[in-house]
């Protein structure tokens, strides 16, 4: 009996651990179509539509419409004020809508190792139709690209961290929210337009110590003029 009780205790702990912290995984496809360019002088814009297909790429999981007006402070720094409308479909229910206002700073840091290192910092104010609170979230992306032989194809990697600055009644939890890690290629399409194709890993922290990992085939088309 003295040997049996410790063995049972260990078994119960092992069974309880996965219940406290589980990782859900999904295969997804994200398509991003973005137009961008100057309006007049140093005034610039971008506009994008981004459908995301989830649940094993079986249907639209999320659709984002986002745009911004920016001002070039220099050839290396541009600041933006933008707005996004996000639709989250709900099976057999009413869609959840999210509205976001955001401020953004794009900064070309430098050209180390024969490539280009840049940063994007975005501060978001978020409202959702299934709650009353406004959520604040800070996002920071570091991006590096390096031409491979010719300038037609470049290796591309980036990482983006998300931090929720407060908790809300619609489910946001204050603290580290998610991490996105991308590896792939940037392909010249003609003029200044490019395509970015690769694998994106999205790790999302959830309430109760659980996590979600999305394995994403990501395609982004930038139409620059």
Automatic annotation (TrEMBL):
Pfam families documented for this protein: DUF2490 (PF10677)
Position of the signal peptide: 1-21
UniProt KW keywords: Signal
Top-rank lineage group of the source organism: Bacteria
Protein known as: DUF2490 domain-containing protein
Organism: Sphingobium fuliginis ATCC 27551
Lineage of the species this protein comes from: Bacteria, Pseudomonadati, Pseudomonadota, Alphaproteobacteria, Sphingomonadales
């Amino acid at each position: 009996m003295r040997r049996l009780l410790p063995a049972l205790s260990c078994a119960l702990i092992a069974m309880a651990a996965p219940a406290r912290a589980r990782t859900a995984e999904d295969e997804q496809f994200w398509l991003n179509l973005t137009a961008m360019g100057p309006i007049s002088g140093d005034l610039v814009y971008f506009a994008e539509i981004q459908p995301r297909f989830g649940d094993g790429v079986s249907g639209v999981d999320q659709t984002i419409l986002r745009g911004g007006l920016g001002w070039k402070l220099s050839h290396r720094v541009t600041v933006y004020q933008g707005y996004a409308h996000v639709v989250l479909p709900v099976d057999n229910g009413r869609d959840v809508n999210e509205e976001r206002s955001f401020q953004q700073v794009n900064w070309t840091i430098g050209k180390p190792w024969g490539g280009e290192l840049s940063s994007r910092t975005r501060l978001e104010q978020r409202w959702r139709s299934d709650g009353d609170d406004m959520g604040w979230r800070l996002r920071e992306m570091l991006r590096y690209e390096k031409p491979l032989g010719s300038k037609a194809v470049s290796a591309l990697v980036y990482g983006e961290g998300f931090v929720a600055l407060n908790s809300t009644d619609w489910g946001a939890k204050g603290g580290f929210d998610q991490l996105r890690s991308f590896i792939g290629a940037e392909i010249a399409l003609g003029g200044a337009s490019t395509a970015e194709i690769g694998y994106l890993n999205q790790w999302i922290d959830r309430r109760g110590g659980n996590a979600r990992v999305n394995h994403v085939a990501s395609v982004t088309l930038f139409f620059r003029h």
